[in-house]
Specification:
Shape: globular
Strand order of the largest sheet: 1-3-2-6-4-5
Number of strands: 6
Number of helices: 2
């Protein structure tokens, strides 16, 4: 399990949640894994979560190029996340 919290002594452990992240396509390649569980502050937004993961894994795609899904449903970047949620960041898909 990875802790994405900043080194902040003011964060109470009771205000953290564990989120399961799934990676596909180029994000899986860049993260060098298909899945990980991370610990974040309960108030973390999906946008903040992606930015923390982007810094950690050096993702090449900015957040506006992606869609996000939570628990198998497309979500808005402003939706809240909760303990145990599964989050997937979806890269653009080419058709043909």
């Amino acid at each position: 399990m990875n802790n994405l919290l900043e080194n902040d002594a003011n964060i109470d452990i009771d205000t953290t949640i564990n989120i399961n992240i799934l990676y596909f396509a180029s994000l899986a390649d860049e993260a060098n894994c298909h899945e990980e569980t991370v610990t974040v502050s309960q108030s973390t937004s999906l946008t903040e979560l992606y930015e923390k993961l982007r810094q950690k894994h050096r993702f090449s795609r900015p957040q506006p190029e992606l869609r996000v899904a939570v628990n198998d449903y497309f979500a808005k970047w402003t939706d809240e996340i909760y303990e145990g949620d599964s989050v997937v960041f979806i890269t653009p898909v080419a058709g043909g």
